[in-house]
Amino acid sequence: MYKYHCLNPIAPVGIERFNGEYERCENHGEADAILVRSAVMHEMKFGDNLKAIARAGAGVNNIPLEACAQQGIVVFNTPGANANGVKELVIAGMLLAARDIIGGINWVQEHEEDGDLAKAAEKQKKAFAGTELSGKKIGVIGLGAIGVQVANTAIHLGMDVYGYDPYVSVDSAWQLSRNIHHAKTVDELYKECDFITIHVPALPDTKGMINKEAISLMKKNVVVLNFARDVLVDSEAMVDALLSGAVKCYVTDFPTPEIAGVKGAIVIPHLGASTEESEDNCAKMAVKEVRDYLENGNITHSVNFPDCDMGKKEEGSRITILHRNIPNMLGQYTALLAKENININVMANKSRKEYAYTVMDVEVEIPEKVERELTAIEGTLRVRVIR
Question: What is the mean pLDDT of residues 273-281?
């Protein structure tokens, strides 16, 4: 029986995918797996049983990835599960920036008791006039699950789309419209586009990437949209750009005291993935990832260990080993099994930066003594035998 714990409410349509071999527990210290959305986990102490954490969403800055890796805890996220919900809000943000819809709505509310409201509106509406999206240039920074959908939708809106992503995956490349201009540098995108939307993770080399220097390269009256992470944009530089008129509008899904209330800023209370469909999709994907790892040892969409798929576990034992990516680890494991006269039928070994994952299928039951000896090899983080 596996135990799981939910740190945040997880959509029932996902939880229902746990079968009778799973039991929900109230104490996270007893759990084999934790499901989380936005709860901050950096100060948490993890129980010895914890094998997996699944983030029902894409961002994982609320999870201590390195600490989890060192304890042999695989962290998953659910890329693409909420992509459509975020994409739709990005498009809404572009429309709000292009046309003063908010200002117009506010004006109507302020004059709702005017007996001749319709006539007054006809006179006032020119104050809220804007531009259309069709024919404008949009730059999409980051062509992952969300960026691809934004880019393709912008094409259908009649926009001229520039995409930039030096690490675009094969899957994303296949999904991209052939009409997208592939910018060779992000500076090219800054200089050409009327709208710039950013869809990259928060990494050391992306934090603050929209800064004073980047803004200085952009066209006057540019619209910048940030539905990825607040730290990607230098708040001080953006406020200065809005006040000076260098940036016409900044649309962000991340409310902060620095940007809220600044003229030209449209600040949304983190609604990107707040749709019923997105929450359902994230929950279903998270549960699927956890089950496949606990039952079969397969890793899909991990953010701290390499992905590895050995298919469904058949008869016999499956040995799974999370370890450091250092020389001769595989040799030590196979030598130990050979010494115990245990033959390996199928084996996979994957690495990701400083960490690696080895999976071996054998026909026999693995004695606990062998499990302890494998664990004792220096550089091993966790050994788990699925029987």
Answer: 95
Class of domain 308-387: alpha beta
Percent of the chain with pLDDT over 70: 100
Q: How far is CA 341 from CA 189, 229, 366, 370, 372, in A?
A: 60, 52, 11, 11, 16
Give 255: exposed, middle or buried? Use CB within 10 Å, 0-12, 13-18, 19+.
middle
- The stretch 196-201 carries a mean pLDDT of 95
Query: What pLDDT does residue 115 have?
Result: 80
Q: Which residues contact 126 (CB under 8 A, 6 or more apart)?
A: none
**Amino acid at site 307:** D
State the pLDDT at residue 339: 96
Averaged pLDDT for residues 290-302: 98
Per-residue confidence at 114, pLDDT binned at 50, 70, 90? Answer: confident
Rg (CA), the chain: 25
User: 83-92+132-267 architecture in CATH?
Assistant: 3-Layer(aba) Sandwich (3.40)
pTM, full prediction: 0.83
Q: What's the CA dihedral at 330, 331, 335, 338 to 10 degrees?
A: 60
Burial-class residue 39 by CB neighbours within 10 Å (0-12, 13-18, 19+): middle
Residue ranges of the chain that CATH labels 3.30.70.260: 308-387
Q: Which CATH superfamily is domain 1-81+273-304 in?
A: NAD(P)-binding Rossmann-like Domain (3.40.50.720)
283 contacts: CB under 8 Å, gap ≥ 6: 10, 11, 12, 13, 14, 15, 35, 56
Q: Look at residue 66 in the predicted model and tell me its pLDDT.
A: 97
Question: 10 Å Cβ neighbour count for 304?
Answer: 23
Q: Where exactly does CATH 3.40.50.720 map onto the chain?
A: 1-81+273-304, 83-92+132-267
